[in-house]
Amino acid sequence: MESVRPHPRGRAGRLLLAAALVAAGGAAVVAAATTATPARAATVLNDSEVTANLWEWNWTSVAAACTDHLGPAGYGAVQVAPPQESVSLPNSPDGVHPWYEVYQPVSYKLDSRFGNRQQFAAMVTACHAAGVRVYVDAVVNHMAGTNNPAGTRGYAGTEFTGYSYPAVPYGSGDFHRPGDNCPTGGGISDWNNEAQVTSCELLSLSDLYTEKDAVRTRIAGYLNDLIGLGVDGFRVDAVKHVKKDDFAAILGKLDDTVVEGRRPYVAQEIFDGASNPALQARAYVGNGDVLDFGYAKGIRSAFLGSISTLANVPNWNLDAPSANVFAMVTNHDLERDGVVLSYKDGADYVLANYFALAYPHGKPSVYDSFTWSNRNQSPPSDSSGRVTDTVCGAAWNCLTRSAGIRGMVGWANAARPVKSVSDFTTVNDNVIGFHRGDRAWIGINDSGSAATATFATGLADGRYCDVIAGGATAAGCTGATVTVSGGRAAVTIPANGAVAVHVNARPGANPSPTASATASPTAGPTTSPSDRVATTFTVSATPAAGQDVYVVGSVPELGSWTPANGVRLAAQGGGAYRATVDLPRSTAVEFKHVKITSAGVVTWESGANRSFTTPAAGTYAVTGTFRGDTVSTAVATSFAVTATTTYGQNVFVVGNVAALGGWNPANAVALSPATYPIWRATVDLPPNTAVEYKYVRKNPDGTVTWESGANRTFTTPAGGTRSNTDTWR
Question: Which fold does the domain 633-729 belong to in CATH?
Answer without folding.
Answer: Immunoglobulin-like (2.60.40)
